[in-house]
Amino acid sequence: MRALPVYKRLLSYFVPVLVSRDAGTHNPLLELYYYRGRYQLATLDALYSDGDQYRPLKLAFNKLKSELPDVKNVLVLGTGLASGVQVMSKLGFSPDFTLVEYDDKVLQWAMELMPEYKGKITPVIAEAKQYIEQQVSTYDLLVVDIFTGRVAPAFVTSKGFLEHCRRGINPGGYMVLNYIIQRNEDWFRIDKTIRSVFPVCFCIDDGINRIVIAKA
Q: Domains in the chain and their CATH numbers?
């Protein structure tokens, strides 16, 4: 992808600058914007990724900062523009990342726009549910950040999926799950399901986002 001209970079500090528009494998419309020095991904009804300022993962990784020196490998289910890598790098850590994304155009953009990174990055085009069910490798940190628009698919908070996630985490490792609540009453049930699989966990409330940090 071509570097943005200087005038567009300067303009981005006042308004979002459209960089590219395309269709993905699973998204009829994808728009790539540059805003205030960071790339953002937009679909028909949602905005994803925000470089190293992506708030859900910023909050989670800062909470886990004392644990991050021991994290050697990370699995991300729902890559977006790879904000997870950028947030981690900004904190001064460079574990190996496996980035799972089911839309090939999104993953292509993520890799093309990836800032220089010291660790190894393995991109995978796959559906997250199938990938974690078939996964045999284990990780020190697993990030679940999967949405269709502003809604997390039902499987993300199902007991079966969460059990597969736990099996994919090394003992003493962590899962970070980003979720947007639709109804408060639903969250009580979801929280109970998560705690049945991950008894040691806590939740960061950030507006409509619930960012779960769970220990395996």
A: 6-48 (no CATH), 51-215 (3.40.50.150)
